[in-house]
Amino acid sequence: MAIAEKLASQQKSISVAEFFEKNKHLLGFDSPTRGIITTIKEAIDNSLDACEEAEVLPDIWVSITKLTKETIRIAVEDNGPGIVPDNVPYVFGKLLYGSRFHQIRQSRGQQGIGISAAVLFAQLTTGVPARVISRTGADKPAYLFDLMIRTEKNEPEIIRKEEYNWDRTHGTRIELEFTGSLAAKRRLIDYLKYTAVVNPHARIQADIDGEWHSFERVSDEIIVSPQAIAPHPYGIEFGTLKRMAAISKDNVHEFLITGFSRVGLKSADQMLKIAGIKGTRKAKGLSSEHLKTLLAAMQEVDVPPPPASLCLSPITEEMIVQGLEKEFELDFVKARTRKAQVFSGHPFIVEAAIGYGGKLDQEGQALLLRFANRVPLLYQQGACAVTNAIAGINWRSYNISQQSLPIGPILLLVHVASTNVPFTSESKDAIAAIPEIEKEITLALQDLGRELKNFINKRDRNKLAEDRARAVCSIIPDIATKVAEIVELPPPDISPIEGQIMRRVVAKKKTEDGMVGVSVTNYTRKPIEVMVYSLSEDNQEEAVPKPDFIDVIGSEFNAVWRITIEPESAWKATYPGKGRGTIDIRGVDEKMKVVVDLDGIY
Amino acid sequence: MAYTEKDKVTQERLVSIAADWYGQMAGGQVPSITLPTRTKANIEYDAKTEVWKYGSKGTTRTANSAKSALHILKMAYVVGFLKQQLNESRSSTLREMYYISEGWKRAKFAAQDESNMLVEDLEIVTKLSREAFHLRPEEDGASIYGPLHLREQTKRGNRDIHCQENVGEAGYPIPSNVENIKFLDHDASFIIAMETGGMYARLMENGFDEEHNAILLHLKGQPARSTRRMLKRMNNELGIPVVIFTDGDPWSYRIFASIAYGSIKAAHMSDILVTPAARFIGVQPSDISDYNLPSDTLTEGDTAALKAILTDPRFDTEYWRHQIRLQLEIGLKSEQQAFASRGLDYVTKEYLPTRLSEMGIL
């Protein structure tokens, strides 16, 4: 037998299931420990996507049980819309079966590989079939399935299918058994925590081998599911164009307008003119040559960016802040949602947040939270465009030390939302280095860095003020006592000094050479409006400035001034007299005022 | 020690510092104190007295930070302590005061340095010396040997001493309070002050004092205040010229500067401590090549110190600029005892007589 013939007898098609069975690492199942995280991640992604589409607030329940020393059972249950019984075997038992692959919009899952890969992984390690329970509504029964994947054909095999008495009215539950360990428990909890941060509308509860973790919902706002849009003419690939043309019934002109987003009459005309193709021709009939010229022409005409607000769903600044505040105790947190941008025809939005202080680790590198379409990225931090962009920023100019990544009690969150997040690999661990995306990340973080710098500066100033206050409160009284002992006089009243340093309002009365001076100094940072009361036997009618009100009670004059004093400035009234009597001010908080009669001191 | 009129003045000046603070606080002000800035940048030459003193730059310490408030509190405690000590006609050493501060709670000194600095601050503010506060210095004075007859007033009566005839080989040790010395008589044509004990002993053994009518003085490194005061008094009151003989390195030039120009730390005491007429005899950088002395190469620290000297206003003279630049150029330093390489008598028979006649003293 000739070699070629011998080889030909061995050549056969490979099922996608077989391929991934051999290349588990491509999907994030490279080790049993990682397999658990990937499985839970895929299940939760599906649950969140499904709930979003059904516009329900997600309630997700995760359970991990150690069955034997080496086997673990994972169950994930949601309150989503459920899956119709006929589709269940395909969703869980066939790779590359999904609803979102052909749509252009932001979603967590895309290819329809994730959860079926988990089923495959379970089947490979323990041979136990996956159990799925799903119900689509209160008026329909729930079904229970035991499923396996026929790897050589990439087709589901139904081991068991029966009606099931389930207390949920709608939702889906999947149970899988693995060989694996809980070695990566810490990372799993991080994953759940980070997922909760970017999905503040979800409640996630987890029972990790008896350990209970609960991530509460902070927002009751249902997320509007992003809509699918037509592809944008920029960055579309030839194959896609050819496929689209082949199924089109329209002429080329209409095909361009209806088939692509943001292409109008005028731009379609321009494209056809450049390509030299008549608009009345059927799109279906165009040769490959014609399609190639058309594709080139499409890139030349000015077309506005895709309608990002429709197909993308950013978390929003408010929700990021709420999510971070809920899961981390921070002294400072600020978020930015940038405007939508485009790379190779795909719209994307970058969101970022910086958290500082609180219970974050005081030393060591910043905590980095990366997200793509609301999914936390846990692996390959070093290979990610986010890490790259962060390391490229000069953090020292924001008074933060840096060793590639910033150092200190800092949390950095970056979320990239896109209709097509460019991952470096199918396991979706790291975002590829796309210059447009890196630029947006840098701009968002620089903006936040400036705010953080302001916060730190202000905090340091406050620290200084506290230091001053401490000195006054504890040391100055000692100085006063010691100094009084040396000069052999009674200790001086140091309350005005306290008022000055503690930033309070100080009212003083002091009589010198037959003139009584009543002064009010505003050491606070805000203007104040106060009433100054002076009760004295001295006739205050001659006071400068004149009192706003004066009343004689027996032999005493009761004078009142109504005044406004700017920060760091003072007001003073004088009148001839002996300085008998008392003063008081009203209109400021008792804690903020100091009244001193300097006539009583010597 | 009896309570004297001088003690009364001292006490008044100390109390007036506290009175200032009292006035500030009674008037609603945060207590503060202004002192001259004690750095190289703030020393100025006073043409009248020919010494270097603090300039006009002042630093104000206001008790509105914990650190400054604590500084003023400590100062207040020291003032209180000194006032009491003067009242009781007692005296103490700086070290003793440092230990006494153990009982001052928050105002206690963290280190001896801190109490020294505070006392220097008080000297500046009161324009009095620490001896006036009845604070005795810790360090020993150096010793002298030569044709000088003096009377020392000791706690056990007056002692008449001839510093050549009735002292041992160690010489006469200078007491901490030089004001207690009365000069009776002398037969000296110059004073030679030396950095090292080895050179002091060499000159004594070779009979340099008798041959040239010289008073030998051992500086013991950086000279104590009492040593500098003694030099100043001998030069001022007896009119004896002073020459300084040290190693040929930057640290030794600073010893000379503290004697002849005034030290940066005690610039407020320059009037009574500095001998502007003192002259540097050697080892000069030019001697290293002229006499082909055994030498060491300059370390990085030496080079940095030499460069610092070039920016020191006290050394801003033609002579020093020339010598320092020369030393930086040759990159070498020599000790004063390096002359021994040419025989034990070389320094007393050749080098010093040559230099002294160059300087017009012999």
UniProtKB/TrEMBL annotation, chain A:
<keyword id="KW-0238">DNA-binding</keyword>
<feature type="domain" description="Histidine kinase/HSP90-like ATPase">
    <location>
        <begin position="31"/>
        <end position="182"/>
    </location>
</feature>
<feature type="binding site">
    <location>
        <position position="78"/>
    </location>
    <ligand>
        <name>ATP</name>
    </ligand>
</feature>
<dbReference type="Pfam" id="PF02518">
    <property type="entry name" value="HATPase_c"/>
</dbReference>
<feature type="binding site">
    <location>
        <position position="46"/>
    </location>
    <ligand>
        <name>ATP</name>
    </ligand>
</feature>
<dbReference type="InterPro" id="IPR015320">
    <property type="entry name" value="TopoVI_B_transducer"/>
</dbReference>
<dbReference type="GO" id="GO:0003918">
    <property type="term" value="F:DNA topoisomerase type II (double strand cut, ATP-hydrolyzing) activity"/>
</dbReference>
<dbReference type="Pfam" id="PF09239">
    <property type="entry name" value="Topo-VIb_trans"/>
</dbReference>
<keyword id="KW-0799">Topoisomerase</keyword>
<feature type="binding site">
    <location>
        <position position="428"/>
    </location>
    <ligand>
        <name>ATP</name>
    </ligand>
</feature>
<dbReference type="GO" id="GO:0006265">
    <property type="term" value="P:DNA topological change"/>
</dbReference>
<dbReference type="GO" id="GO:0005524">
    <property type="term" value="F:ATP binding"/>
</dbReference>
<comment type="subunit">
    <text>Homodimer. Heterotetramer of two Top6A and two Top6B chains.</text>
</comment>
<dbReference type="InterPro" id="IPR020568">
    <property type="entry name" value="Ribosomal_Su5_D2-typ_SF"/>
</dbReference>
<feature type="binding site">
    <location>
        <begin position="99"/>
        <end position="100"/>
    </location>
    <ligand>
        <name>ATP</name>
    </ligand>
</feature>
<dbReference type="GO" id="GO:0003677">
    <property type="term" value="F:DNA binding"/>
</dbReference>
<keyword id="KW-0413">Isomerase</keyword>
<keyword id="KW-0067">ATP-binding</keyword>
<dbReference type="InterPro" id="IPR003594">
    <property type="entry name" value="HATPase_dom"/>
</dbReference>
<protein>
    <recommendedName>
        <fullName>Type 2 DNA topoisomerase 6 subunit B</fullName>
        <ecNumber>5.6.2.2</ecNumber>
    </recommendedName>
</protein>
<dbReference type="InterPro" id="IPR005734">
    <property type="entry name" value="TopoVI_B"/>
</dbReference>
<dbReference type="InterPro" id="IPR014721">
    <property type="entry name" value="Ribsml_uS5_D2-typ_fold_subgr"/>
</dbReference>
UniProtKB/TrEMBL annotation, chain B:
<keyword id="KW-0479">Metal-binding</keyword>
<keyword id="KW-0547">Nucleotide-binding</keyword>
<dbReference type="InterPro" id="IPR013049">
    <property type="entry name" value="Spo11/TopoVI_A_N"/>
</dbReference>
<dbReference type="GO" id="GO:0003677">
    <property type="term" value="F:DNA binding"/>
</dbReference>
<dbReference type="GO" id="GO:0003918">
    <property type="term" value="F:DNA topoisomerase type II (double strand cut, ATP-hydrolyzing) activity"/>
</dbReference>
<dbReference type="Pfam" id="PF21180">
    <property type="entry name" value="TOP6A-Spo11_Toprim"/>
</dbReference>
<dbReference type="Pfam" id="PF20768">
    <property type="entry name" value="Topo_VI_alpha"/>
</dbReference>
<comment type="similarity">
    <text>Belongs to the TOP6A family.</text>
</comment>
<dbReference type="InterPro" id="IPR004085">
    <property type="entry name" value="TopoVI_A"/>
</dbReference>
<dbReference type="GO" id="GO:0006260">
    <property type="term" value="P:DNA replication"/>
</dbReference>
<keyword id="KW-0460">Magnesium</keyword>
<dbReference type="InterPro" id="IPR002815">
    <property type="entry name" value="Spo11/TopoVI_A"/>
</dbReference>
<protein>
    <recommendedName>
        <fullName>Type 2 DNA topoisomerase 6 subunit A</fullName>
        <ecNumber>5.6.2.2</ecNumber>
    </recommendedName>
</protein>
<dbReference type="Pfam" id="PF04406">
    <property type="entry name" value="TP6A_N"/>
</dbReference>
<dbReference type="GO" id="GO:0005524">
    <property type="term" value="F:ATP binding"/>
</dbReference>
<keyword id="KW-0413">Isomerase</keyword>
<feature type="binding site">
    <location>
        <position position="195"/>
    </location>
    <ligand>
        <name>Mg(2+)</name>
    </ligand>
</feature>
<comment type="subunit">
    <text>Homodimer. Heterotetramer of two Top6A and two Top6B chains.</text>
</comment>
<feature type="active site" description="O-(5'-phospho-DNA)-tyrosine intermediate">
    <location>
        <position position="99"/>
    </location>
</feature>
<feature type="domain" description="Topoisomerase 6 subunit A/Spo11 TOPRIM">
    <location>
        <begin position="190"/>
        <end position="356"/>
    </location>
</feature>
<dbReference type="GO" id="GO:0000287">
    <property type="term" value="F:magnesium ion binding"/>
</dbReference>
<dbReference type="InterPro" id="IPR049333">
    <property type="entry name" value="Topo_VI_alpha"/>
</dbReference>
